[in-house]
Amino acid sequence: MAAAAAARAVPVSPTLRGLKRTLPLVVILGATGTGKSTLALQLGQRLGGEIVSADSMQSPKVDTEQVVDQKVELEKEDSHVLHSRLRQVDPEMAAKLHPHDKRKVARSLQVFEETGVSHSEFLHRQHSEEGGSPLGGPLKFPNPCILWLHADQTVLDERLDKRVDDMLAAGLLEELRDFHRRYNQRNSSENSQDYQHGIFQSIGFKEFHEYLITEGKCTPETSTQLLKKGIEALKQVTKRYARKQNRWVKNRFLSRPGPRAPPVYGLEVSDISKWEDSVFEPALDIVQSFIEGHEPAATPVRIPYNETENKRSYHVCDLCDRIIIGDREWAAHVKSKSHLHQLKKRRLASDAVSTTKSQTTASDCDIEPKEHGSPGQNDPDLKRST
Q1: Domain that holds residue 152
Q2: In a shared domain, residues 179 and 38
Q3: Do both 116 and 54 map to the same domain?
Q4: In a 3-state reduction of DSSP, which class is residue 215?
Q5: Which GO BP annotation is one of this protein's (predicted)?
């Protein structure tokens, strides 16, 4: 996930050069648009650090796109077939993964087929290693300094919309056209484009698919409409991705940190006019505290959570014909508009059936003889007996 940048802090002060303690690995977490790269550059320049990008889409390895590895082959199969296969070899992991989450299911199958060890067993071994925790295996770097940049969601949404507009003004469309001509035009003509793997799955390309494949082949009005559609889609998916990144940070580091999880220091970045005072200077103080080997004055971020909550619990909603993984997700589902809509439909259908039955019963009770008279007057057997 493109939610982090890292810099190994290298002190330049003469008083610190002789220190033998382990220098910290500074990890900067945050959603897209929060200023991770800016802060990494500032800290790197001030401290003489080396900056490493942790963006999963940093390098477009398009030359390997034609190589079909095992995971890609697995993902071509039906999701329910894949999940059934996983249940046979790794029932523990299958119970944690949604059948429709084909990529994770395929990944777990790939681990088993390539190593002979189930994915769940592989993770158990990592957790049980010295320094391991519920988050995963031992930390690769022993002295991490983790900073989390976060902003008010409304402010961040507006910033991301403007960021898309700025990218367009800086020549994004020409870059997209060039990339399409060089790497995707032939695939599109053969209807074999793949937006699920490699660089093609990154945000900012597939949203303009219709515009790119029809440019010059339709009316200017249609092309303009498709361009507007692509721009709006890019803005929407970017904002959704930012929310997903923040959920990942909270779930991975803050809600269930585990006994050995490193502290995370939050920095508010909503007001960029106060960047120096509210972001850079506090970040510098925290990093320098790590370098000098003492606790920062800042308090780490902690988010209260329910210890009894099960993030991997398995729920089936027969009403919506859906499988839900996790207690929190289940609680959200039963309150969702889609579930409440289905519940309302069922109640209306049930009320309609009840009304029909009531009307039928009432009709049966209201039937009366066509001829009226004294009891037995119209009974032929009684007439004969008299």
Answers
A1: 4-59+129-292
A2: yes
A3: no
A4: coil
A5: tRNA modification
| Residue 43, amino acid | L
Tally the residues of the chain.
386
The answer to whether the beta carbons of residues 224 and 214 sit under 8 Å apart is no
Q: Of 166, 170, 209, 244, nearest to 2 (Cα)?
A: 244
pLDDT at 300 over 70: yes
Query: Burial level of 16, CB count in 10 A (0-12/13-18/19+)?
Result: middle
Q: Are 227 and 156 in contact (CB under 8 A)?
A: no
Q: Are residues 140 and 123 in the same domain?
A: no
**Local structure of residue 183 (DSSP, 8 states):** I
Indicate if the pLDDT at residue 374 is higher than 60. no
CATH number at residue 78: 1.10.20.140
Would you state the pLDDT for residue 307?
59
Higher pLDDT, 213 or 112: 112
DSSP state of 131: T
Using one digit for the tens of pLDDT, what is the confidence trace for 89-103? 999 999 888 888 888
Cα angle value 160/250/293 (rounded, 5°): 105
Q: For 251-296, how does the pLDDT look when each residue is reduced to its tens digit (9 = 90+)?
A: 777 876 555 678 899 999 999 999 999 999 999 999 999 999 999 9
**32 Cβ neighbours under 8 A, 6+ residues apart:** 2, 3, 160, 238, 241, 242, 245
